[in-house]
Amino acid sequence: MDKRLLIAVLLAVAVVLITPKLFPPAPGPVPAPGADSTASSVNAKTADSMKARAPASTPAVAPAAATPAPGGAPNATPAAAAAPAETASVATPTVTWRFTSAGASLIGASLADYMVLPKHDRHVELARAGVPLLAYRVLHGADTLDLRKVAFRAAPSSPRTLSYSATTTAGTVTLQYAFVADSYLVHVRGTLRGTDGAAIRLAVVMPDGLASSEADTLDDQRNLAYVWKPPTDEAESVPFATIVKKEWIRQEGPFEWVASKSKYFLLAVITTGKSSFSGPALFSGSATNAKVPATASGEMVLTPDGEGAFSFDVYAGPQQWRRLIALGHGLQDANPYGSFARGLIQPISRWVMAVLLWMHDTFRLNYGWVLVIFGIGVRLILWPLNQSAMRSSLRMQRVQPELQALQAKYKGNPEKMHAEYMKLLEQHGMTPFSQFSGCLPMLIPMPVLFALFFVFRNTIEFRGVPFLWMADISLKDPYFILPVLMGLSMFALSWVGLRNAPPNPQAKMMGYMMPGLMVVLFMGFPAGLNLYYAVQNVAALPQQWLIARERAKNPAPAVPVPRT
Fold first, then answer.
1. 324: which of 31, 332, 382, 390 fits an S-S bond (Cβ 3.0–4.6 Å)?
2. Which has more confidence, 453 or 93?
3. Strands (DSSP E) along 272-424, which ranges?
């Protein structure tokens, strides 16, 4: 078998084998317990009216209303809701926050700039029905006190803050929320004063998933995960499905931040000040059966400073790449890209993301057209390298008859054959590497293609972006037009590449098989990824056609038939 064909076959096998590893099949959905998440969404008109009453730069605290507590986490006891609780709403230009005096918990966050898809009929709400976004427990020696069972008093607050305090069996607890205008950030400050002088710690309980606001709710649930970042290491994540399978996962601290995320949104608790999330962080899950849906809960321990004071920040909002970079702490890595190839894919993903955002801001174009320009631009940048590799392949084709003659002549003398082979390459201005350089055009674009897969998987900038007949380029093409066009363009590229080439049945077979395999593989991928790959193929056609013409002008000599 021709070496170039063998390399092409190996590359094809690599694509088929590596792609499922990089892009593993999505695990089964983790159904949300309780009522439908839409029941917890803030009515858009109510949120807008709150914003209208608040100054543009100053959060507004709505008067507390004596209403029943919206419930606790899955393991909360009814006692937490038995006592009357008051709720308070705080509206900023970006978020309407909701709190309850039962445990001073954060029970809701409605995002003013994002709407539920596909109807766009209400604002995105991060909290699921009956599940607070943040709740607390006090660790007092060997005892644990669930603060959701404690009725806090609302202390006098400024327009920018909301304060709570309570006296418990473990000691006195105070919490203050300070809101940052035009941001998704809340500064949390507080104190823990033990009654007997014993050290007490605070356990921060995170929700078992965020409410889904996507057109593809199953895909959103498959992306539910906890993410954490040690101070001196990269962020790591564990999907809910893995937690449910293992029942519980323990991660030792300290942590710079811990987050619960969906496909596009993030609830992160970030270390600040002298207090620290010393750990451990416990993530537990319950198995699914016909009556009880699967859940996963997360909790991390915060150690106050020597005077009992603690502080941390809460980010509840979109996974906007630039916004998360501006916040620091490595929050932009809340979606660790690349699986086992993370060291290669993650840097390329960051570069691709930066370029796409820059193009969108500079040219003021729809992201669909940005991808078209980006695909053509990548081909133009690689044109000189592709040209060199293709011409090297042409030279190998021309020297192939002489090489086969040498193999036949010195079949029983490998050392002599190697010496003559090196001499032959030197005569034609080639090196042993030349026989592999023709495969470089196929290898170089692959990391960018893989990086784009991850970029489309969780980049909120592409969420709900329409293009041509598609309502959302972050989802698969509903009519499968783009995967078919991608396959046809790939076939055209192969057909042009085989023109005026020496007859090669194996290469012809691969030219027919690979486009079909790629169509099947890409049918479930985001439409934007199919668009990029199709544009890449079309943009490569002129160069392939020029090489085919060059091959026709200087055809490879016929292979001599060795004498017997």
1. 332
2. 93
3. 281-286, 295-302, 309-318
